[in-house]
Design brief:
Helix content: 40-55%
Oligomer: single chain
Number of helices: 9
Strand content: 15-25%
Shape: globular
Number of strands: 7
CATH topology: Rossmann fold
Number of domains: 1
Structural class: alpha/beta
Radius of gyration: 16 Å
C-alpha cells in the first residue's frame, strides 16, 4: 500500500471528524476572529499577483482562507478550494459565492486529498493553507504544495505551534502539531522564506499561531 493510500484509509481520517463538527468548526472561527487576523495580514502585505491569478486553498475547511483572500483581493482571480470534507466544502461554497458574485473572481470547490492534489505541476501562482499540514507528513505535504506552485509563486500557511492547549486539540481532531524547527527546516527545503509573522498575543489567532510567507525559487 502506498503512503497516499494509507493516508486515505486511516480509521481516524480527519474527513469524518470535520464532517461531524462542520457547524461547530465554522461557528468557532466566525466568533474568534481567526479569519480577520489573516485578512488583515493579507491587506497589509499585498502580494504581486498577476492578473487572473491562479490561487489554491489547500484544505479550505469551511472557507476561512478562501474568504479572507476574496475580501482582500478584488481583481480577477481563479480560486480552487479543496478539502476532504464534503460538508465543509458545502459550507465554504455558499459563503464564497456571496463574496464572488458579480465579480471576475471565479471560485471552484472539489473534494481532494492534500497529498495527491488533482492539478498539474506549476498550476498556481499562490497557495494558502491552514490546519492541513498537521495531518500530513510535513516533508511530503510541503513537497506536494511546492509541486503545484509555479516558480516565483507564493505559499502562505499558518502552522500550529505546539502548546499545552494543542494537546487537547490533537486528541479532539487527531492531528499533530509539528515542532517549529522542523517546520522551518522543511519549508526551506522547497521554498525561500520571506516572512515569519508572529501575531500579537492578544489577537484571537495569537494564542498559538504564526504565519509563514514563502516563495518557490
Amino acid at each position: 500500500m502506498s503512503l497516499r493510500e494509507a493516508i486515505t484509509r486511516l480509521p481516524d481520517d480527519p474527513v469524518s471528524i470535520y464532517d461531524r463538527f462542520t457547524n461547530l468548526y465554522d461557528l468557532m472561527f466566525r466568533v474568534n476572529g481567526y479569519g480577520r487576523s489573516v485578512e488583515r495580514y493579507l491587506r497589509e502585505n499585498p502580494l504581486p499577483l498577476p492578473p487572473g491569478a491562479r490561487v489554491l486553498d489547500a484544505g479550505c475547511g469551511t472557507g476561512l482562507l478562501t474568504l479572507a483572500f476574496l475580501r482582500v483581493h478584488e481583481r480577477a482571480a481563479n480560486v480552487a478550494s479543496i478539502d476532504l470534507s464534503l460538508r465543509s466544502l458545502q459550507t465554504a461554497r455558499k459563503a464564497a459565492q456571496k463574496l464572488a458574485r458579480g465579480t471576475r473572481r471565479r471560485v471552484s470547490f472539489a473534494q481532494s486529498n492534500a497529498l495527491a492534489l488533482p492539478f498539474a505541476d506549476e498550476t498556481f501562482d499562490f497557495v494558502l493553507t491552514s490546519g492541513v499540514l498537521e495531518y500530513l507528513p510535513l516533508r511530503e505535504g510541503l513537497g506536494e504544495l511546492a509541486r503545484v506552485l509555479a516558480p516565483g509563486g507564493h505559499l502562505l500557511f499558518v502552522p500550529v505551534r505546539p502548546s499545552p492547549l494543542t494537546l487537547l486539540l490533537e486528541v479532539m481532531f487527531r492531528f499533530k502539531a509539528h515542532p517549529p524547527l522542523e517546520v522551518e527546516a522543511e519549508t526551506r527545503r522547497y521554498f525561500r522564506v520571506l516572512d515569519h509573522h508572529h501575531f500579537d498575543p492578544f489577537e484571537p489567532i495569537g494564542w498559538t499561531k504564526s504565519l509563514v510567507l514563502a516563495q518557490k525559487p
